[in-house]
Amino acid sequence: MTDRPPPTPTPGTVAATQAPRPGGLADRPEHSPESPLSIHDVTVAYHRRPVLWDIDYDAPPVAPDSGRLIAIVGPNGAGKSTLIKACLGLVPRASGTVEVFGLPAERQRAIIGYVPQRESVDWDFPVSALDVVAMGLYGRIGWFRPVTRRWRERARAALDQVGLADLAGRQISQLSGGQQQRVFLARALAQDARLYFMDEPFAGVDAATERAIVDVLRDFRARGRTVVVVHHALATVPEYFDDVLLLNMRIVAAGPVETTFTKDNLRKTYGGRLTLLDQAAQALALAEEPR
Amino acid sequence: MSLTDTSISFPPWSQVFDVLAFRQGYNTSAVVLGTTLLGLAAGTVGVFTLLRRRALMGDVLAHATLPGIALAFLAATALGMEGRSLPVLLLGAAATAVLAAAAVQAVTRHTRLTEDTAMAAALSVFFGVGVVLLMVIARMPVGNQGGLKTFILGQTAAMTGRDTMLIGGLALAAFVVTGLVYKELRLVCFDAGYARARGWPVGALDLLMMALVVTITVVGLQAVGLVLVIALVIIPPTAARFWTSQLGVMLPVSAAIGAISGYLGAAVSALIPRLPTGAIIVLTAGAVFIVSMLAAPHRGLLATALRALALRRRTAEHHVLRALFESRETGAPPSLRELRGIGGAVARLDRRGLLTGRGASMALTARGLSQAAQITRNHRLWEQFLVDYAELAPSHVDFSADRVEHVLTPDLVAELEAAAAARGRLPTPAGAELIPSVHPLRSPDAGGGP
């Protein structure tokens, strides 16, 4: 937050800028209601120890035929997964708001997709690849209704798009790691959301899967979707992504790859933690701890 | 019967048949039917309890019913009602079970204790309170309290036809509800994070699952007893999992195992009233579990052991074939002595017509030669790959290649060939199909091995 200039106060309105902000985001100067994702002043804490401080971010608006691929990049422990989980409401926010196309994220779940980390589920679970992909359609199938053939055909089409049509009936533990990742991707495809969050989809996958993921990302972009991807491999950021969000417990820099993904910004992101943030977090955690 | 009379008399076969065929009077038939329905519902609900990893929580709920039973008895007696009334007791049981679940939740959320610690504490404290209350009741000057103890280990003899109707009805309801939200429970059990992100009420579905377990527990108190009832929830799905990897199959199999356990257990108990019903039911389920664990195809222990044996045999055969092939290349006698278990491998290869002769005169047949060439080629492709791409020293790759070469699929071999071709190893300079070994083969004088 110290790396970005504070909003310039208009002369004569000092008192107004210091007054507490109203709840909505529409009156923020940098905010646009068409933004697929607006994060305002989000702080996240685990056991009262903050891991993300005062995150502000607005994803650029998109057109129907040109979406946006956004990478979240940062060192281990920077809070990359935590940020997208906070947006999805999977971890509680200590403060702040998240809006999707101008409405609170909680009310936009139907148009928000999610690809969790592959390790987050038990792959020995007794379901087939097709069963997992069909889960992306449950929201549209609705409560109590069974997954009928019509829906299974849709799920199969999504599997086909990631090159796994032949493995639809295969039990998921019989798939390779890359194939499992593609099954997750197909589930996201089947859902057909407008904003996607993906948690390290490229982690530990084979070349064929990496190509499949990139194809899907480009397809999403061509259809005007916004995709926010937690990404580890710095080398591929300029090739795969339009925007980058450099994170290390706070936002170091965010914007188009050409202007933001600079050596200077990377050094600021990876060049050690801001130790003061760490120390303050520790102090907050200890303040309520029994001695 | 006196207290010292511990003999168990086996009933005549005609009576056995009558009980199993629901012909031993209304009461016995009702009890057998009710317990069967209980097993059916427990096996169904249990599948999701198992997949959501809530087995231990189920045990907490079961044990926490005891103080509820005692308190309900005390309250009903104080109000001048019949203390042994089943609906009243079940209501009390459900109340303290829910209280225990809430206690576990609260402790986990507000302290840094892990859930298993909180569950262990809740289980013992609630059960302890129940035991103390039972002692208090036993010393009170009210009659008709003796039956309460049967809730701990279960005793179908104490069940009436009316009780059974209630039990069977509740079990059936739990079964139907589970079927209704099958799709939603499957999603939450597989990927709760995704479900929550998509807006499914994961907390409410978890609560529903908990409520179903409480229902089964409470319903099973009389027949199985609170100590063992969780076994009837957990063992059938665990056994069913051995037979299938499809939830749609696992569910009916588990329900069937539960139903059969309940049916047989209640029948045995009707024939030999001294045996504790709960134990018989659970032992029946346990027997099915052990058979499943041993004999199930694919996931069973026997099948696993057979697969390991087949791989060991194939490995030994490959070693013999490669040793013979390489001895043709080097002109040295094959070094088979250091390979373990080759006697059987040589005999099997001989039977399949891949080699002839023994000892020094052992030789590959034409068919054996082509197989041996294939195996040796795979071995060297893998070695070459490790040297070229994993940058391992040529002297270190023999062992790991030995492990992998026996499980190489045609797809993997094709990828290895592509990798070797990319480094200019294929086709070989001599134009031969076989690529040379990355390390020196055994020289003639070292042929015997250590």
Protein model, in words:
The complex is a heterodimer of chains A (291) and B (450). Chain A has 291 residues and is an alpha/beta fold. Chain A contains 11 helices and 10 strands. Chain A has a 6-stranded mixed sheet, with helices on both faces. Chain A has a 4-stranded antiparallel sheet with strand order 2-1-4-5. Chain A starts with 13 loop residues before the first helix and ends with a helix. Chain B is built from 19 helices and 2 strands. In chain B, a hairpin with a 6-residue loop joins strand 1 (355-356) and strand 2 (363-364). The N and C termini of chain B lie far apart (75 Å). The relative contact order of chain B is 0.10. Residues 443-450 of chain B have low confidence and may be disordered. Classes of the chains: A alpha/beta (291), B mainly alpha (450).
